[in-house]
Prior knowledge:
Layout: H1 5-10, H2 31-37, H3 43-48, H4 50-64, E1 69-70, H5 79-82, E2 85-89, E3 93-97, H6 115-127, E4 132-137, H7 139-148, H8 156-164, H9 166-190, E5 194-199, H10 207-228, E6 234-238, H11 241-248, E7 255-258, H12 264-270, E8 275-280, H13 289-302, E9 309-313, H14 323-337
Parallel strand pairs: 1-4, 4-5, 5-6, 6-7, 7-8, 8-9
Antiparallel strand pairs: 2-3
The structure holds coproporphyrinogen I.
The site of coproporphyrinogen I has 20 residues, from β3.
Amino acid sequence: xxxxILLKSLKKEPIERYPVWLMRQAGRYLPExxxxxxxxxxxxxxxxxxxxxxxxxxxxVDILGVDAVIMFSDILVILEPMGIKVSFEAGEGPKxxxxxxxxxxxxxxxxxxxxxxxxxxxxLKEKSPVPVIGFCGxxxxxxxxxxxxxxxxxxxxxxxxxxxxxxxxxxxxxxxxEALIEYIDxxxxxxxxxxxxxxxxxxxxxxxxYKEYVYDYNAFIIKxxxxxxxNTPIIYFFRGSSSHIxxxxxxxxxxxxxxxxxCINEVCNTYPSLAFQGNxxxxxxxxxxxxxRKHIEEFIMCIPxxxxxxxxxxxxxxxxxxxxxxxxxxxxxxxxxxxxxxxxKNS
Length: 347
Ligand code: 1CP
């Protein structure tokens, strides 16, 4: 690995600039990605072709110069071997099929069925000049897709199910958690240097619902992974960060990836033992270069000197941005944060 500043930052070792990568960095805004994407009718077939999945995972390193590779896959692929049919309709998002009999969901021995993910990680580990990020969805975020059977705006079905069918909801969360622990264990054994857990839809939950229905599962997954792989950093990404940050801070993750609902200076100072990632609005990438640079300069100034920090967006890149702007963003972060004396308390 030629450039490991992402790992150094997560481990609170001194670094000369902040690492930077972007959620959804392998995507439609890149013509190089679109060229390969058009070979496939089905998104899942694309994910299952290890050679092409590796190619698009690595494109952002070559084209943008980011400090991490995220494996090209999806949070929903784990559902297929559990017994839930998943398909991605063009322009409509995912569609799921099952009969709500959660007791019958399979939650172990999934490794064989997800072999294409582990093979991809092995290839990336060999080829990538930067750390490789493996990932999974958090159980609530996955449960919301299972219950809604598609994307949702208000998560009404999920909440009605959670409050009215508590036993079945917990069965689903348990099954997902067991499967996720095994899945992540295999990802790390196959070469993932860092794991990011995506809790994209935690923002739908009240603080008390997060505590009662979600917290223990997230904490259990992180604890179980840490027992087996104490040296692999875990990043917990959660939306609705301002509501859930206090609970998220005790989950056992090494780093919190936060959205723009929190003031980055405030959260870094409040939770000094944690590393942070984030939290720029994705629309920063749509700004003119001059204003974008100013925005990045002001942002970098807000990060406390002692914080272990990774620059990223607060959610994924939107497809309407230009490749040129994303390239400029990465260059700017590198330039602006270079030489900012980053010295950690323990170093
Ligand atoms: O048809 C296509 O081309 C599929 C589009 C697509 C892509 C490119 C989907 C379907 N998933 C992905 C890749 C993907 N998904 C990655 C790897 C790419 C990278 O980051 O560079 C990752 C990390 C994800 C994770 C993912 N999938 C999340 C968590 C992150 C987030 O955005 O909040 C979620 C919620 C999904 C679900 C999903 N997958 C795809 C769609 C259209 C959706 C639904 C999103 C929604 O409900 O709004």
